[in-house]
Amino acid sequence: MRRFPAEFADLLSRQGQALLAGRHGAAGKLADPRTRFLALSGLIDARQAKGAAGLLEATLGPHLRLMAQPIPPESIWEMRENYAEQLPKVMRQRTLHLDGGKGVGLAAAADIGLIAMLRSASYRAFAEALAGRSLRRRYGLQAIAYHPGDYAGPHNDHHPEEPLARQGYVDMHIGFCTPGAKSQLLVYAKAGHFSEVVEVVGNGLVNAYRLPFWHYTTPLIPKRGQTETARRWILLGTFLYAK
């Protein structure tokens, strides 16, 4: 792959096209408040998915910003009561925001057609097909890459101070992995416990979230001898409900 298609629909398999048309079993699933997370495979054309990670790695890899928020030492040493520990959101990953502005990374994303594809009508329509309800026309975009050992600690993605997001919203992840990636798990809460586990390493995986809810991502594990080349890429769209 040298360039992303102009329409997100052109990245889809037959199953993905069926979802876009509302004829797939996952269509509208996130409309049910009891469904917080979907992990779907086979929606992205396999041939297209195979080249996407390499294209992202070659063009956007050099322009990512390291986002590292380690566990603060005071979370232990400033405790005054047993079992009163509190963990803020901690993480390590590389990221590039695609919402606008200027910069070499944004220019590179535009040159390969990534931004145009993620702003296409079929991209938002695909998210609406999963959400089961109308979404606002303006939405956030981000590219994220996990290197070996990168992770996202427990968090709930709740934004009570944001009027349009405080009642919930939808995130959609399109994942692409280089051949060196072996495993990474998404762990999320059900009935108040971190009891649900999904493998998220794979090419063309679609993960959709009805937020907020508690979840975390374990460190990326590379295959033996491929630490330098193992990556998991995510194209992230954040969508607010239209009403």
Draw up the topology in text.
Elements: H1 14-20, E1 37-40, H2 46-59, E2 65-69, H3 74-77, E3 91-97, H4 104-111, H5 114-118, H6 121-131, E4 140-146, E5 151-155, E6 169-177, E7 181-183, E8 185-190, E9 193-199, E10 205-211, E11 215-217, E12 221-222, E13 232-240
Antiparallel strand pairs: 1-10, 2-3, 3-4, 3-5, 4-13, 5-11, 6-10, 6-13, 7-12, 8-9, 8-11
Q: What is the mean pLDDT?
A: 96
Regarding quaternary structure, what we see is single chain
The total strand number stands at: 13
Helix and strand element order:
HEHEHEHHHEEEEEEEEEE
Give the fraction of residues assigned to helices.
10-25%
Derived structural class: alpha+beta
Individual helix count: 6
Kindly estimate the percentage of residues that lie in beta strands according to DSSP.
25-35%
Give unreliable regions as ranges. none
Shape designation? globular
Can you give a write-up of this model?
- This protein is an alpha+beta fold and 243 residues long.
- Helix content is 20%, strand content 30%.
- It contains six helices and 13 strands.
- It has helices spanning 14-20, 46-59, 74-77, 104-111, 114-118, 121-131, and strands at residues 37-40, 65-69, 91-97, 140-146, 151-155, 169-177, 181-183, 185-190, 193-199, 205-211, 215-217, 221-222, 232-240.
- The strands form two sheets. Strands 1, 2, 3, 4, 5, 6, 8, 9, 10, 11 and 13 form an eleven-stranded antiparallel β-sheet that branches. Strands 7-12 form a two-stranded antiparallel ribbon.
- A hairpin with a 2-residue loop joins strand 8 (185-190) and strand 9 (193-199).
- The longest helix is centred in the first third of the chain and has 14 residues, at 46-59.
